[in-house]
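[Backbone geometry]
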Amino acid sequence: MKVVVQKFGGTCVESEANQLLTAERIMEAKDRGLYPVVVVSAMGREGQPYSTVELVRTVRRIHPAIEPRDLDMLMSCGEIISTVAMAHLLRTKGYETTALSGGQAGLITDEYYGHAHIVRINPELLLSALQEGHMVFVAGFQGITQDHQITTLGAGGSDYTAVALTHLIRETPKLPFGEALEVEALQIFKEVDGIMTANPPSLREHGGQPCTIPHVTYDECVAMSRLGAEVLQQQAAEMARKHHIPLMVRNFRQADSPSTQVSPSRAYAESDHATAIVDQPRLLVLDLDTEDPRLSLQIAERLDRARLTFYQVQTKEAKVRFAVRPLKYRDVDTILRQILAGRGAKADINAGDFALVSVVGEALRQRLSAWAERAEAILTDSSIRIRGTASNEISLSYLVPEGQRKKAVSSLHKQLVLQPAS
């Protein structure tokens, strides 16, 4: 039995027309002799009735503070609704289907509400449904603890569900009654033609147009996810890299649309072009007034343990500066108060005035200094103020004023992605 895991984002199921297009992609897999395991996100985005944002608003209208356990229970409903709807749609077209919640699919997580990690999978129901020849629909973004409490896997968690299920099936050589089991490359369906060289809205204001990247490495995928690209949830990207899970990102609207392959390496890694420019808008920036060298390490460890994405940037003023997403302001504020209490240190907080713009690509590996010199010259020539820098093996990041973010993206994209290094 050959299985393919297909993950469909919220846009893919937000309307009746999109649900029909999604059904076509599922039926095409079945036509090729594959057995689909379909992971579905909640329907649509902010403003639509069953989106996660709107579900949360229904209780926060009563009071903004809600118990994390209860919030996860509520947020899991969106994926369950879309999963049942899609399973029902395919059943009306003559297919045998089984709809499963994350817990029913056997995704066991730790007890970290809001950003749980999968610790194991008990796949009995999933494998039994495959054994019976059913299309299996699994609600993404959710699991259960050992004590049967519902948890969610963080923003973009349906990607994590899909990668975990693909890994499970790869590691399961046979079905319960002995039939051999194989799995094809994971298919991630979105409303764009794969992974792009930049976020289209960030280029549009300056007349730029991104391109679809035909192939990225796992390291590039992880870096782009962490730095703000809506490529793949970071936890999912890291799991795919760890287990070398092949995957492709494609547009759900067309059977033969362009796509991006994600795999360990690519032939043109020595290119003089950067792979992508990634931007993270409206960041919360924390400046610490301290000479204690251990303080930044302590804060970084606490933020990491709290599963908060953060960026520690270097400044010319030698300040300790962190940038975090503003949605987590309360969590960050609590951590800072706990650490700074009684230590005589202060933190200045600027909300939403900064953005992170990053150059990502295998071409930067072992050549960061040369790329940094060129990137900083481009930003300087474009009158972009650099308020801090950060880097890793294949990325360079620049903290810039939010009002200059799109101009920075456009300038770097034009000269580092579209044009080769001189």
